[in-house]
C-alpha cells in the first residue's frame, strides 16, 4: 500500500502521518514518528470532519480507478469528471443548501449524473418531513412539470419514493403560473403530502421543444420562514454537514458505476435493448416506462434502434457514459425526443448510435466513446405499454444505414450545425448560464 500525504490545517495531519507509518511498517519500511504530545491533542469538530472528508476522497478515488467503467482513456476522463461532479453536488446539497431557508439546486448540463435526461431540468431541495413548503413558478415552454419526494437515497438503495404529483393533477393558470403546497395536512388547490420521513423534494420541467421560448422557473419557500432571519450555525453543526456531504459523495460516486455494471452490462448483451418496465412498480413515478441497454462499438459499427410510436405524452431516447452521466447535449446531439425526430413510414422512429455521422436525421452522437448506455423513456402512459410498441435493436455497419431505415432522409453538416446551435441556445436560456 502506498502512503498518501495530505496537507491539513489541524493536528489530524499527525494522525494521517501515523496511518501512513503503519502502512509503511507493514511493508517492512521505517518511518519517522510525530511527537507524542501532538498525537495526544484532541482534534476540533471541524478538523475531524474535514479529515474524514479527505479520507473519503482518497477511498472513492481508489474505488473509481478499480471500476469496470475505468477501461480506456475516455472512460478514465469520465471517471474523474464523475468523481469531481459528485463532490460538487454533495457539497452543494449537504453543506450549502438548508431545509429551513431553501433554494432549489439545479441539475442540468453543468452537473450531470444518474442517467439525467437532457430533456429535463431537475430542481432539488432538502426538506423537513411533515412541515409545510410552498413551491411556485411558471411552466414556460416545458411540456410537463411534476414533483416527487424522496425519503433517504432510493437511487443508492437506501430509502424510498415518498410522494409524487403528476402534471395531469396540477392546475396551471392561463399565464403558465402555478403554486403547490407541500405539507402534512391537506391543502386546497395543488397539494402534495409531505410524510414525516421526507428528506428531499425535487421537481422536473420536461421539454420536448428546444426553442427560444421562455423556459419557465421554479422556487421554494418554507411556509412561515420567508422573512425570518437565519441564525448562524455552530462548528458542530457545520461538522455534521461536512460528514453528510462525505456520505453523499461516496454514495453518489460509487452507486452509479455499480448500477451500470449491474443493470446494463450484466443484464443483457451489448447493443441489445431490454423489455420496457413500468417504473411505478419499481418505486418510480406513475405512468413512466423505461427501457435501455449499453452499446459497445468497433470501428465502422453502429447500433440501430427501432422505437415504435406510442400514445405516451412524452417519448425520448438519450445516451450516457459508463458512469451514467448524460453526454454533452448542447454541442452534441446525444438525445432526441419524438418531437425532434423523423417518423418513418412504418410508424416507428429509427435511431443510429455511432461515433461517425451516418448522414441520417435521427443520429445520436456517441462522440469519442466506444462504450456507453442508452435510455428510452415513455411518460404519461395510461395503463400498460403495448408489446407492439416495444423497441428493438441490432448492430449494423455504417454503410448499411440507408438500406435498413424506411424513409431514410439525408442530413448534411449545415443542418447539423444549425441543430446544435439551437440546442445550445435553449440550454443557455434554460439554465441562465
List the topology elements:
Layout: H1 12-26, H2 36-40, H3 45-65, H4 73-96, E1 105-107, E2 120-126, E3 133-138, E4 144-153, E5 158-165, E6 177-183, E7 191-193, E8 200-206, E9 217-222, H5 235-265, E10 277-278, E11 289-296, E12 301-308, E13 314-320, E14 335-337, E15 348-354, E16 363-365, E17 371-379, E18 392-397, H6 401-404, H7 413-431
Parallel strand pairs: 6-7, 15-16
Antiparallel strand pairs: 1-2, 2-8, 3-6, 3-9, 4-5, 4-8, 10-11, 11-17, 12-15, 12-18, 13-14, 13-17
Helix pairs in contact: 3-4, 3-5, 4-5
Structure, described:
With 433 residues, the protein is of the alpha+beta class. Among the domains are: 99-222, Jelly Rolls; 267-431, Jelly Rolls, CATH 2.60.120.1600. Helix content is 27%, strand content 25%. It has seven helices and 18 strands. It has helices at residues 12-26, 36-40, 45-65, 73-96, 235-265, 401-404, 413-431, and strands spanning 105-107, 120-126, 133-138, 144-153, 158-165, 177-183, 191-193, 200-206, 217-222, 277-278, 289-296, 301-308, 314-320, 335-337, 348-354, 363-365, 371-379, 392-397. The strands form four sheets. Strands 1-2-8-4-5 form a five-stranded antiparallel beta sheet, with no helix packed on it. α3 (45-65) packs antiparallel against α4 (73-96), α3 packs parallel to α5 (235-265) and α4 packs antiparallel against α5 (235-265).
Amino acid at each position: 500500500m502506498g502512503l498518501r500525504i495530505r496537507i491539513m490545517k489541524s493536528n489530524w495531519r499527525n494522525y494521517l502521518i501515523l496511518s501512513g507509518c503503519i502502512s509503511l511498517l507493514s511493508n517492512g519500511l521505517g518511518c519517522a514518528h510525530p511527537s507524542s504530545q501532538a498525537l495526544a491533542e484532541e482534534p476540533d469538530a471541524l478538523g475531524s470532519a474535514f479529515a474524514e472528508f479527505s479520507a473519503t476522497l482518497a477511498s472513492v478515488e481508489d474505488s473509481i480507478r478499480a471500476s469496470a467503467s475505468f477501461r480506456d482513456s475516455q472512460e478514465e476522463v469520465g471517471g474523474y469528471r464523475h468523481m469531481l461532479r459528485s463532490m460538487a453536488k454533495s457539497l452543494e446539497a449537504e453543506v450549502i443548501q438548508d431545509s429551513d431557508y431553501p433554494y432549489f439546486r439545479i441539475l442540468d448540463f453543468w452537473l450531470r449524473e444518474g442517467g439525467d435526461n437532457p430533456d429535463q431540468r431537475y430542481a432539488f431541495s432538502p426538506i423537513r418531513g411533515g412541515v409545510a413548503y410552498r413551491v411556485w413558478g411558471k411552466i414556460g415552454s416545458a411540456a410537463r412539470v411534476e414533483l416527487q419526494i424522496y425519503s433517504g437515497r432510493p437511487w443508492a438503495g437506501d430509502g424510498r419514493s415518498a410522494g409524487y404529483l403528476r402534471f395531469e393533477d396540477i392546475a396551471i393558470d392561463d399565464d403558465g403560473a402555478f403554486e403547490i403546497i407541500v405539507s402534512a395536512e391537506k391543502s386546497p388547490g395543488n397539494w402534495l403530502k409531505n410524510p414525516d420521513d421526507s428528506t428531499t423534494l425535487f421537481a422536473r420541467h420536461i421539454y420536448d421543444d428546444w426553442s427560444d421560448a421562455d423556459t419557465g422557473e421554479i422556487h421554494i419557500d418554507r411556509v412561515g420562514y420567508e422573512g425570518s432571519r437565519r441564525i448562524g450555525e455552530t462548528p458542530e453543526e457545520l461538522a455534521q454537514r461536512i460528514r453528510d456531504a462525505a456520505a453523499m459523495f461516496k454514495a453518489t460516486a460509487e452507486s452509479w458505476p455499480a448500477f451500470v455494471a449491474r443493470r446494463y452490462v450484466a443484464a443483457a448483451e451489448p447493443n441489445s435493448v431490454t423489455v420496457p418496465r413500468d417504473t411505478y412498480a419499481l418505486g418510480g413515478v406513475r405512468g413512466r416506462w423505461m427501457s435501455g441497454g449499453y452499446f459497445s462499438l468497433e470501428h465502422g459499427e453502429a447500433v440501430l434502434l427501432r422505437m415504435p410510436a406510442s400514445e405516451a405524452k412524452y417519448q425520448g431516447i438519450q445516451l450516457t457514459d459508463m458512469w451514467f452521466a448524460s453526454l454533452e447535449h448542447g454541442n452534441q446531439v446525444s438525445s432526441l425526443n419524438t418531437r425532434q425526430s423523423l417518423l418513418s413510414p412504418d410508424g416507428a422512429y429509427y435511431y443510429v448510435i455511432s461515433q461517425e455521422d451516418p448522414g441520417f436525421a435521427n443520429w445520436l452522437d456517441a462522440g469519442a466513446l466506444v462504450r456507453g448506455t442508452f435510455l428510452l423513456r415513455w411518460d404519461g402512459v395510461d395503463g400498460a405499454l403495448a408489446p407492439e410498441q416495444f423497441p428493438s435493436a441490432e448492430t449494423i455497419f455504417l454503410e448499411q444505414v440507408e438500406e435498413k431505415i424506411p424513409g431514410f432522409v439525408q442530413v448534411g453538416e449545415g443542418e447539423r450545425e444549425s441543430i446544435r446551435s439551437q440546442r445550445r441556445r435553449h440550454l443557455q436560456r434554460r439554465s441562465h448560464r
